[in-house]
What does this fold into?
Amino acid sequence: MARLADYFVLVAFGPHPRGSGEGQGQILQRFPEKDWEDNPFPQGIELFCQPSGWQLCAERNPPTFFVAVLTDINSERHYCACLTFWEPAEPAQDAVCAEDAAGSEELAEEGVPMRLSPTSPSPPGQLFAPKTLVLVSRLDHTEVFRNSLGLIYTVHVEGLSVSLESVIGNLLTCTIPLAGGSQRTISLGAGDRQVIQTPLTDSLPVSCCSVALLFRQLGITNVLSLFCAALTEHKILFLSRSYQRLADACRGLLALLFPLRYSFTYVPILPAQLLEVLSTPTPFIIGVNAAFQAETQELLDVIIADLDGGTVTVPECVHIPPLPEPLQSQTHSVLSMVLDPELELADLAFPPPVTSSSSLKMQDKELRAVFLRLFAQLLQGYRWCLHIVRIHPEPVIRFHKAAFLGQRGLVEDDFLMKVLEGMAFAGFVSERGVPYRSTDLFDELVAREVARMRADENYPQRVLRHVRELAEQLYKNENPYPAVTMHKVQRPMESSHLRRALRPFPRLDEGTVQWIVDQAAAKMQGAPPAVRAERRTTVPSGPPMTAILERSSGLHANSARRLEVVRNCISYVFEGKMLEAKKLLPAVLRALKGRAARRCLTQELHLHVQQNRAVLDHQQFDFVVRMMNCCLQDCTSMDEHGVAAALLPLVTAFCRKLSPGVTQFAYSCVQEHVVWSTPQFWEAMFYGDVQTHIRALYLEPTEDHAPSQEVGEALPRDEERSALDVASEQRRLWPMLSREKQQELVQKEESTVFSQAIHYANRMSYLLLPLDSSKSRLLRDRAGLGDLESASNSLVTNSMAGSMAGSYDTESGFEDAEISDVAGAVVRFINRFVDKVCTESGVTSDHLKGLHVMVPDIVQMHIETLEAVHRESKRLPPIQKPKLLRPRLLPGEECVLDGLRVSLLPDGREAGAGGGVGGPALLPAEGAVFLTTYRVIFTGMPADPLVGEQVVARSFPVAALTKEKRISVQTHVDQLLQDGLQLRSCTFQLLKMAFDEEVGSDSAELFRKQLHKLRYPPDVRGTFAFTGGSAHTPGRPARATKDKGPSLRALSRNLVKNAKKTIGRQYVTRKKYNPPHWEHRSQPPPEDQDDEISVSDELEPSTLTPTSALKPSDRMTMSSLVERACCRDYQRLGLGTLSSSLSRAKSEPFRVSPVNRMYAICRSYPGLLIVPQSIQDNALQRVSRCYRQNRFPVVCWRSGRSRAVLLRSGGLHGKGVVGLFKAQNAPSPGQSQADSSSLEQEQYLQAVVSSMPRYADASGRNTLSGFSSAQLGSHVPSPRARVTTLSNPMAALVSRRTAPRGKWGSIRASGRSGSGISVDVGSRLAGRDVLGPPQPNGAPPDPGFLRPQRAALYIIGDKAQFKGVRPDPLQQWELVPIEVFEVRQVKASFKKLLKACVPGCPAAEPGPASYLRSLEDSEWLSQIHKLLQVSVLVVELLDSGSSVLVSLEDGWDITTQVVSLVQLLSDPFYRTLEGFRLLVEKEWLSFGHRFSHRGAHTLAGQSSGFTPIFLQFLDCVHQVHLQFPMEFEFSQFYLKFLSYHHVSRRFRTFLLDSDYERIELGLLYEEKGERRGPQACRSVWEYVDRLSKKTPVFYNYMYAPEDTEVLRPYSNVSNLKVWDFYTEETLAEGPPYDWELAQGPPEPPEEERPDGGAPQSRRRVVWPCYDSRPRAQPDAISRLLEELQRLETELGRPPERWKDTWDRVKAAQRLEGRPDGRGLPGSLLVSSVPHHRRSLGVYLQEGPVGSTLSLSLDSDQSSGSTASGSRQAARRSTSTLYSQFQTAESENRSYEGTLYKKGAFMKPWKARWFVLDKTKHQLRYYDHRVDTECKGVIDLAEVESVAPGTPTMGAPKTVDEKAFFDVKTTRRVYNFCAQDVPSAQQWVDRIQSCLSDA
It folds into this structure.
């Protein structure tokens, strides 16, 4: 029983002591006056009576009532019911308020209701003071309090004949039962009656309607937010103008939190004076009058719920974690069903009749039921994670949080994590964790209903039914007796408070009240205590927990197969089948990512432990440790899946014997994991073990106590009983035990905990002290010991174990400070753990002290044990690692550093490593890296055993290294960080290596140094091309043994000597064998290559004149110069002669000048140059000064047809340009010296122009009108030249028959805006500025109108050079300013290209998108586009008869690229193997491209870096090769070969920067001079020649050139392809460009060809990402040709060489009708006649009228063939190549070709393929040329006559009338039309001859 009311207090308004306007509360009287012993009087009640402050009021307000809640120091809540009414103020009070004039206004602001009623008779100046009746109780019966205080007020107001004292006395003596659902009627003796019902269960909160009201005010989402905020310990503030609403809202929120109890500050109504409480740092739930809203604005971390406005405001800095899904959405939907049942029916067509919604009280219970279910779902199975640590004297219970989260699958969930860490949950565990207590609704729900809730999840109606059932129970708990007799309590009459003559509340007689109280107390003492016995039971545990959401763990959903693999592997290990285990290990390590497999592993390992010990051999030990490490590496510090917990006993069980008496346990090898340094893990483990032991303690003695017949039954039950069941039983028995027995049990438990603490101190020292004390010093930097010192929540990194090393150095007599520090840290860590667990589990202080003494000894002993183990483990023989595979070396290549063991890691190329193709991954591979004088080589085997015995090789020339950086790599299995090295090369190889542990850091450093030394030798003679294959020192070149005649080497020395005399004194002092160091003298800043303006200015004295050159009588010099490539090419082109006969010289416009034979004028030019005939040698010196690097314009090529010449030079110096144009406009006689060289320059250019043949010939070839984008019916004769249009395909199609079709589209439609030639230049060149407006289709306005004048010479230069220059329209040369990229842009672009093609690490987003994006960012293809675009422009100009001077940058980079490309596109000779060699030797080597500088060959060039100018040129050639595959004699492999070897420094060809330097080193002529026996090839060309004799790998099988073919490739970026040289690689043998190394598979060659076996049966599978396709293909083709030969001999045919067959087929193709310049009929054009173009057998159809690209052998347009014909044409080359094996019919083709045939009556003309067959005497026709089915036959026996015909309706329009002929047979007349007149004539002749033969 309990008192209904503890105190009754009367509080009145009193003046404020400091005299301010506000008053304060004064307690007038309180009853009883003495405090109750069990319940002292709460302080500060007067503040809570008027929360807004005590103020006088101008009128009489109606009485108010609310209940405030006070919490005392013991967390007991006191409910203060306050009824306030107003009385007229006394004069003293008036006086106080007179000072406060604005009192009433303030009150209005404060929000106190002010009602001025017209009936109010109070005098105008009258003020009213508040008076409050307060009832203080520990029970929460709001309605009873309201009625009781109301009755007292009524008695006072209505003047009832009842004494107030007796009513109050009765109220204070009224007692009611606490709980149990009893009903009590009380009366206060004023004729009243009240019924009090107590709830059935005390633990369930009573909410009345407060929850429902809260939802009404705030809505579902807001209340859910507040619910989550309260659970996760945020601050919540309610605002309302009503105090009762505030109290109800707070009460409702608390009711929702059940079964958790809110344990922080809880003040439903906070007085205004205490508002500063809101800035407390702890969480709270507080209600405040809305009048004070302004004061709450600056609270930054408080969630504010405005009950009146219905809003919840969450500050930005506060994050409220939501409920875990799916609970959040389920709860939301159930709440909406409860609150708004009509929502489900809103959309129904025929809604059911509206049912009455449940009452507010019932709805309140339904809402609470939803939250009760939510908690049951959240905390389901929580009892399975309770650890009972002590049972007696009081239960000590701990909750295993990590296990709970892990098993519920909510480790990541923020909400549950915070709830479990919160105070409320801690209270929940200590209150509800007790195994033996009374249970309530929640216990039943969580134990029995979980399965039902899971089953009902998807059925809303079932859920609602369950909610209603729970709501009934909750309602019944609050209202156990429904048929309640009505309360009878008197109330005052309406408006009674407004009566005038209201007397003030009287002062009560304390004695009377006290007497009544004492009477009741005396009565109570005599009565027996009515204590209701509590029904206590064992709390049910419920079903074991399940994951809240069955998530499959994606990739690692462990199938039974995976677990089987794990089991098999372990059984192989323990059976000693190590090879089998090794095969399975990678699969096991992959499987161990999954939880089930890790559990399976721990279970399997447990089976192999007997008596806590399992001794293994070394290999088994290694396997077990590896698997344990793999298991642990994915464990978080919490170990939520219990894997580390399961492994903890195992790591101290598995061991190996190192030597007699020294055993190494597994724990010394698995310390590097974060879980071991987490205090929470150790605590959970400790409590778990203690629980096991305590359970055992109480299960053991059953046999002694139990009678014998029960033993059998008890035992099996014991096995099943959980620790909680045992504890519950023990708690039930506890009161019945004797005192001694109780003592004994407490002692036993305490010693159990103590022994476990010692055990755990040992275990922790095992896992925290590292084996190797030296390691700790390395790891110390990563995780300072500070981590250990921090709070127990700190997650110490995996190096923590390392940071606690070792051993006290006892021998030496002093302690190593660092090591002892580590030991000290471990001791402190263990001591802190021991303190925590022992105090929590009630270990006595003596025992605890003992433990503190023991811990340092335990650690010390363990350190000493470890010393011996570490010493012995060092002596172990290392694990047998795979044997290192030695690489094959080139002759002359020597190993510098022997193999360092490394593993090669994947570098981000998907396709290259096997995985992308679907096979097993070739990388990572384990092997070794070798450094030789020539290459860096990795050889090894793939780590994945599924690949088989493949060898992985990756190498690149040392010279190609572009970047080297140190990396640190995490190993796959052991998660250790290893040092690594990443080497990137410009041959697109990347070695990303992790050094093995056995490779010391010094070895790795040595490797880096040696690599650097080899990469950048101090001098070019240190490169492999010089040192390779020679035994002599690299310092001095070898001398020839015989020096009888003057050898070429001697000659070259003389040349250099003479040159030095000529140049001047400054070079004589240089030592002979130093390399040419002028790079040093004027080293350009590496960033800006443009600063290299004429280095030669400072090198050559400006007074130098040609007369001081070498004597011309030195014939030897001349003849050797003549042998150079340049001269051979000049002679081929007929570009002048060296002969001095004047007659010859006159006729030749150009001559070969030896002016530079001593390299005096221009150091970087060849010795012999082509200059105009009319220019004297001495003028050249002056001309050269106008150009950068003295590179003046010289002729390098002449067109055989148009006789236009191509010149090259360096860019002009600024002065030169201006001078040039000054001079040309005003040639005055008295010109200054400064302009003289410009004048010379102008004369020079004039000489070039005049030396060309007469420019404008009558044929009109030279108009630019032929260059329009699309041209119809122009009369320009069409040469057989290929042109690409870059405008629309339609226009291209229409204009296909006119030759140089649509060129300038390619200039303006460049891939990127602003990147090409400026539009005005293009249009000017296209003749647009002269002609009228173009036609709509883009053709020139009048095709017959010729442009009057074109410049004879175009100077193509950099835009910057020509700034501000106005060209003279009358001049014969014209400037074409173009924008080209700079060399540094090439360098930057190449770096990005390298990154894109060989990323170095796997892409973040797999798929082609990221690769393509980075490719675009590199802008490499747009640079190629620009080069091709400019080259095609120059080709056009040359082809149209204008000469072109290319004068860009210094004349040795982009100029060389453009000039070489132009010659390649214009002249078929350069597309042969010999011609391409000549082109490279002439333009790149002789004209001084700086290979050494751009390739950074020596130490001097290191800073400038690698710039791939030559590679870019080769890429352009590759693009052209792709578009015209039949025009090149060499294959794509040849281009890749040169790309690789121009940087490899294997050959001397691409070394040094100019011929002058090569002479100086004596290189230039030795290749042609002394051959010293079988010397290794020095020249790349020589190597190619030798190799070509063995294999056709450099030869292009599709080579079928057209003699006069000028190539005009597409240059748009969309037409360019990324070169596969950049992306593909061969892991079988490394790059396939060193042919000797790539001799096929490693088996000996004899095995390859077994004697007598048929060779063709030995087939090989070529794996695209492993083998080399360029190697395999030539072999395949040669096999095919062998096969062909064999078949020929079998069939008894005379053998035909395939080349002859090819030539014959081509010749036949040529005869197939020639165009006569006429067009085709328009109807045919529309019917998609394809436009043939040389391309790689690709067939593209772009819609009904699109361009079709196909591989065709005919050079002209096969005008008759249809689209499907061209599809067949792609296969034509092969079908004709082996034509001799076709049927007999195909051999009888006497003559064949395309003819148009008029069909029968009313049918159109069609193009058909006709075959004249003399043998069968018939004229057959087919749909297409390769068709095998004949469409019709004309028997020649029936032919009567063949006569010329006339065009009929629908005939081809553009064909000459004479091309028509008719064939008359006995049946009908056939109308034919040939493509042109000659072919028509030929057909007629052939048919006639056939007829005459017959």
About this structure: DSSP finds 65 helices and 42 strands in the chain.
